[in-house]
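Both lines are retained for reference:
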Amino acid sequence: MKKIIRLTESDLTRIVRRVIKETDKEKIIQGIVNGKRSEPRYSEYTAEAAMDEVRSHVWGMGCSEGKDRLLQDVSRFVDEAQKELSDEEFEKFQSEIDELVQMIDEDCSEDEYDEDDNF
């Protein structure tokens, strides 16, 4: 049998906050019990997977929109990866990004469209 329960916005807010608090406590306890910090949100997400996403975007876009636009896109990828990767994975990712940024600086011009400079 189904029951319909009416909740006010404040009831719903209180319930959501309680669930979030309990989830956070569980993560902290797991980290303490295991003797290490809690696992990242996406533990299967690796530097290699993140770099594949960036490369795919860079190769697909090439220098067609100009160096500044491409570097802004890479910067957004770095910001997202920093949130999702462990510190160790992010260090690996960052070293590969540095090489990619250097290549973009050398190969792309400042112009919006450069037909000669495509990856």
